[in-house]
Design goal:
Blueprint lengths: L2 H12 L4 H5 L6 H31 L5
Length: 65
């Protein structure tokens, strides 16, 4: 890792925003929590679909034509 990259990482760690400064509270807004939960749920569903598709392709090979 270059020293420039290390310096950027150090600076980004130093400048981490705090919720308190952004919205006047210590916790993130409720809408943000809900949005992140929905994103995680969507990503997990997509992962499950891809795993099922992979398993089907491994089982059936390329004989689907």
């Amino acid at each position: 890792m270059s020293t420039t990259k290390q310096n950027e990482d150090k600076q980004s760690e130093d400048k981490q925003p705090e919720w308190e400064n952004m919205v006047g509270e210590k916790e993130p807004p409720e809408q943000l929590k809900e949005y992140i939960e929905k994103m995680i749920e969507f990503n997990n569903t997509a992962k499950d679909i891809l795993k099922d598709t992979r398993d089907w392709l491994v089982t059936n090979g390329n004989n689907s034509r």
